[in-house]
Amino acid sequence: MKILILNAGSSSQKSCLYEITTPISTLVSQPLWEGKINWSQDQNQAEITVKTATGARLQKTIIGDSQQIQFTYLLSTLTDGTTKVIDDLSAIDVVGHRVVHGGQDYREAVIITEEVKQAIARLCNLAPAHNPAALAGIEAMEKTLPHIPQVAVFDTGFHSTLPDAAAIYPIPYDLVQQGIRRYGFHGISHQYCAHRAAEILDRELLSLRLITCHLGNGCSLAAIKNGCSIDTTMGFTPLDGLMMGSRSGAVDPGMLIYLLQQYNYSSQELDNLLNKASGLYGISGISSDLRKVIAAKEQGNQRAQLAWDIYVHRLRAGIGAMLASLGGLDVLVFTAGVGEKSAGIRQAACEAFGFLGLKIDLEKNQQQPIDIDIATLDSTVRVLVITTQEDWAIAQQCCTMLQEAEG
């Protein structure tokens, strides 16, 4: 079964093609083909990169064409040129999409219908950087492959098990009844990493208390018990919780009232302030990329140092909150760009929890670990660095859904 995965972001479109044989293996399969479009800030220029499992590579810059034409070109690399892996797009059996927000109605992966599209569209105001892009990808594939089934896998789905005490805000209850609650995000990644951690440790997932740290440009933590998410840091939108690349994370809501009343901020100005001008970028004044902030910190830049200090403080505080929800900890997992690549962040986070008996092997931590335990032998908590495989997890769910639909 050939499965095309589309993972749409606000400024990029990542795609990959998997071939899955049945029964579905738990081992991660490498994609036959991977393609990515990065759009410039004005959306007028697209940087397209493609690679295949056999080592073929392509890079191309497209200027001026519409995003639909750019996306069509990306798909053409599946069937043409040095990156060809299939004879025709009709060889694709199903298309899977990562959709960030599924609201309360969509807690499991679903085959996309007009009703599902309308629900994704309604939720665009809760995930404005992601849901519109996912919807555009769905509609683009409808035009390209109109008879191929499409599946939506929701980032919010894994967190549908949050208990009410963790999910419901202390606001007037009629607002709760209107759907204002904690949804949580990065669920596909948190779920995959929990299962992968159990595999690495050769333990039953149901027996483990885990905190998974998804630290990328967006950041969130999840407390996982009995295989279920019981707490998480992101909330009604992906803006809540930890300090992120350009997002503020949690702030005093009174501050927003103050900015509205005293400085006449508009809702759009507040949205831009909190989503695009805050976080590492806002404090450092340098970049939303932690690597660049670290480089400036090491050169003595005080704002970069402050950005690092705040990031670490809030990460430790978030882990502490998840720890309290779990009532103990067996496994701490780091994943995503920062979690997988920043030895300094992993060390700084772990140092605060020495009182638990958590100890990391400093040498292992520095060796760019992938899917291994970096805790010392005598550590009471296992510490894993896991390469998150969201696209593979989506592909597995698509395969399962298609098999069920075919009876």
UniProtKB/TrEMBL annotation:
GO biological process, one term: acetyl-CoA biosynthetic process
Keyword Translocase attributed: no
Subcellular location: Cytoplasm
Organism: Cuspidothrix issatschenkoi CHARLIE-1
Protein's name in the database: Acetate kinase
Lineage, top ranks: Bacteria, Bacillati, Cyanobacteriota, Cyanophyceae, Nostocales
Family statement drawn from the similarity comment of this UniProt entry: Belongs to the acetokinase family.
GO cellular component annotations of the record: cytoplasm
Cofactor(s), by name: Mg(2+); Mn(2+)
Main location: cytoplasm
Chain positions recorded as substrate binding sites: R98
One Pfam family recorded for the sequence: Acetate_kinase
